[in-house]
Write a structure and sequence with these properties.
Helix content is about 70%, strand content about 0%. It is mainly α. The radius of gyration is 19 Å and the shape is globular.
């Protein structure tokens, strides 16, 4: 009960902090609109690269353009939701180095909620909107034999993928408590992870695919559930039920990230004077 109360308190604090930053960001509405549009266009450049590639080839490792677009959109939308919620986590190392992290520790508010809600920005919605638009097109253009299970699996995949990426943001923040100047290491797994998942697993070596399936389970963001939706072979010949395991994988990742965060926070010893 005490842990549940702490979670509720943390969510309440996060909502209040995020709301404060939203009100601040909406003070200059024209600037906000232009920034949101610019963010949308900038994130769309990755998909333009895929379109240019498919202007020269008919398929990529046997995957058609709509199928690759489905992978791309699922990865980008999931990451966009996670980035919207926890995109400030990589800045924790800077807070530790300049001493401002200590200020968060003395406030009567969960530290994770403060770090996650810090500088919350709706301009990050550009990535979500762009990914959602491509996802909508891919679902119509791809040759999918739709069933009730597949229809339900699409939103489940996106939400579970977002939770997995949030867990990566939190785990990376916990690592920065020890390493401090490690934002680029964290970005390699978050930004690098979403870029990798935009392409079919057959493009990569089997050892890498095994690593992102059984060690850092990014494959459950989109590769595994998308294989079921598109009727493609599962990576590494996984069993059929693996397509529906994303929520369990996400829950496990969040639990481990929470443990890493609490461990890191207990070991923090300030930067001194």
């Amino acid at each position: 009960m005490a842990e549940r109360g702490a979670v509720v308190e943390g969510l309440r604090a996060y909502r209040m902090i995020a709301g404060m930053w939203v009100r601040s960001g909406m003070t200059y509405r024209t600037s906000f609109v232009f920034t949101l549009f610019g963010n949308l266009v900038l994130t769309g450049m990755d998909f333009v690269g895929i379109l240019l590639m498919f202007s020269q080839v008919d398929s990529l490792a046997g995957w058609s353009l709509p199928e690759v677009a489905f992978l791309y959109a699922a990865s980008v939308t999931s990451f966009g939701l996670a980035h919207l919620a926890a995109g400030s986590m990589p800045q924790l190392g800077t807070r530790i180095r300049d001493g401002s992290f200590d200020v968060l520790l003395v406030r009567p508010v969960p530290v994770l909620a403060q770090v996650g809600g810090d500088r919350f920005s709706l301009r990050r919605l550009g990535r979500v909107v762009q990914g959602g638009a491509v996802l909508g097109w891919a679902l119509v253009a791809a040759d999918v034999d739709w069933t009730v299970a597949k229809v339900l699996l699409v939103p489940l995949m996106v939400v579970s993928g977002a939770a997995i990426f949030v867990a990566l943001f939190v785990a990376g923040a916990a690592f920065q408590i020890y390493a401090q100047d490690a934002a680029e290491v964290q970005n390699a797994f978050t930004y690098g992870g979403t870029t990798m998942l935009q392409y079919p697993p057959a493009v990569f070596g089997k050892e890498l695919v095994r690593g992102v399936t059984f060690v850092l389970p990014l494959a459950f963001v989109n590769w595994v559930p998308a294989a079921h939706v598109l009727g493609r072979p599962y990576p590494l010949e996984l069993p059929g039920w693996a397509a529906f395991a994303s929520p369990l994988v996400a829950a496990a990742c969040c639990a481990l990230a929470g443990l890493a965060w609490r461990t890191g926070l207990r070991s923090y010893r300030s930067v001194g004077s």
